[in-house]
Design brief:
- With about 475 residues, the protein is an alpha+beta fold.
- About 65% of the residues lie in helices and about 15% in strands.
- It has 2 domains: about 350 residues, Outer membrane efflux proteins (OEP) (Up-down Bundle), CATH 1.20.1600.10; about 70 residues, no CATH class.
- The strands form 2 sheets. A 4-stranded antiparallel β-sheet has the order 2-3-5-6, with no helix packed on it.
- α4 runs antiparallel to α9.
- The two termini are about 55 Å apart.
Length: about 475
């Protein structure tokens, strides 16, 4: 049993601790979206390899064999030459090699389009990695926030335990069941003498002027019920937080392949800092991708226009014929032969109606993307203003919530002091405790929201 305990203790003590930056690096290597895009990128590179292959010779080879009758004597190359009393075979093979010499920019333009496509793909990869980064930041901040909220709930449970203990003692006092565990020192009617021993001078003065004859708060069973209900609510909230924490950790473990008992380095949710400065929309990934797309549209128009020109090629042809039942002929011989020809040629692949339609489509795409580029800065400027306003509003909201939390703490501490001195009521204590806890949790959640919004804002600017 001791060995098992030591084993699990060692797992806890030596669990890997990750910083936010470390998790982002791992995610941007292992996330399924990144891996899937890597395959897409390799496919685009393979398309470029296919275009490079167009510079090399194209080779076609045909071979045929067929039965034929004997040919004895002069031949015309028709079936009339053959005597089918004797059957043999005739074979024929053709080899053609076409080497492009000049294509009027068709291949080079197609390659330029493919290379621009790779550039867009790289920018798209940055966009995907930005999304992965945002997801990790959300999970990391959520784990910090959950840890802090759990601490807040634990503090609340401790306060409820203390209040419950007093209520139980009041109940015993009401039932005439006293004990000697300090109950009388804490909860019996206050006198000037024991006030001086237990409280500060300010509390004593307040008690003298306002509550000189005040006795301990009488026991109200409803207060005990409220405490128990509050405790159960906190337990439910803790279970919900634990389930959410397990879900987030499971997601990170599954997607990133890290240890299931990992820890995170940060334990306090901090407000991310915003680097102030003018936004340069032309540095945004989206704008750069749009610019590349415009270049592709221009190249597509050029490529289709060049398709009307021929390809200048070097042609190499080799022909071979043979038959085992035909005599070799002097002069023209349709059944035997071996020849090779090398020539300079022009090759067209014309589909005029299709080319004209494709040119029109490419020009329309070019016009559309140019219009988008011209309007891009206006659209992004509006969006940028909205994001900035939202961030500023959230910061002000955090400041207000922090002020509320500060005042809620004063309210709670005042009620706690009064209650445990016999000057306040349990319902006031519970009400202020609930308000104080809620105010702290509200601050945590708003800081979390701000950090995620700021992350999205930075990704929007291409940072």
């Amino acid at each position: 049993m001791l060995k098992i305990f030591i084993f699990f203790l060692s797992l806890t003590l030596f669990a890997k601790t990750y910083t936010l930056e470390e998790l982002i690096i791992i995610a941007q290597k292992k996330d399924v979206r990144v891996k899937d895009f890597e395959i897409t990128y390799e496919t685009l590179k393979a398309n470029l390899d296919q275009l490079n292959a167009l510079y090399y010779p194209k080779i076609t080879y045909d071979f045929g064999i067929a039965p034929m009758g004997e040919v004895d004597g002069p031949a015309k190359g028709s079936i009339e030459d053959m005597d089918f009393d004797t059957i043999g075979v005739g074979l024929q093979s053709k080899l053609r090699i076409v080497q492009p010499l000049y294509t009027f920019g068709k291949i080079s333009t197609a390659k330029n389009i493919a290379n621009k496509g790779l550039e867009i793909a790289k920018k798209k990869e940055s966009e995907i990695k930005g999304d992965v980064k945002k997801d990790v930041i959300k999970a990391y901040n959520a784990l910090i926030m959950i840890g802090q909220i759990k601490d807040i709930l634990s503090d609340g449970k401790a306060q409820l335990k203390k209040a419950k203990k007093k209520l139980e003692k009041l109940k015993k006092a009401e039932d005439g069941d006293f004990d000697d565990e300090g109950f009388e020192d804490i909860d019996k009617p206050e006198t000037d003498e024991n006030k001086a021993e237990k409280t500060t001078e300010s509390v004593e003065e307040k008690t003298k002027t306002e509550n000189e004859t005040t006795e301990s708060e009488p026991f109200d069973e409803n207060d005990l019920f409220k405490v128990v209900i509050y405790e159960e609510k906190l337990k439910i909230e803790e279970e919900q937080l634990k389930a959410l924490e397990d879900e987030i950790k499971f997601g990170l473990v599954t997607l990133l392949g890290i240890e299931s008992d990992f820890k995170i380095e940060d334990t306090k949710l901090e407000i991310y800092q915003l680097n102030k400065g003018e936004a340069n929309f032309k540095n945004m990934i989206e704008y750069k991708m749009l610019s590349d797309l415009i270049e592709i549209n221009k190249l597509e128009v050029e490529l289709k226009q060049n398709s009307f020109y021929p390809n200048i090629v070097l042609l190499g042809d080799w022909n071979y014929k043979y038959s085992n039942v035909a005599e070799k002929q002097t002069g023209y011989d349709p059944y035997h032969g071996n020849s090779a020809v090398l020539s300079l040629g022009l090759r067209w692949d014309l589909d005029i109606a299709l080319f004209l339609a494709q040119i029109k489509k490419s020009k329309l795409n070019l016009l559309q993307n140019k219009n988008r580029a011209e309007e891009f800065e206006k659209v992004m400027s509006v969006k940028h203003k909205h994001l900035q306003s939202d961030l500023q509003y959230t910061l002000k909201k955090i400041e207000s919530l922090q002020a509320i939390s500060k005042e809620s703490k004063k309210w709670f501490l005042g009620n706690a002091t009064d209650y445990y001195m016999g000057l306040g009521k349990a319902k006031d204590l519970l009400e202020s405790l609930a308000a104080y806890q809620k105010s702290k949790i509200d601050v945590m959640r708003e800081i979390y929201d701000y950090n995620i919004k700021l992350t999205e804002y930075k990704l929007f600017l291409g940072e």
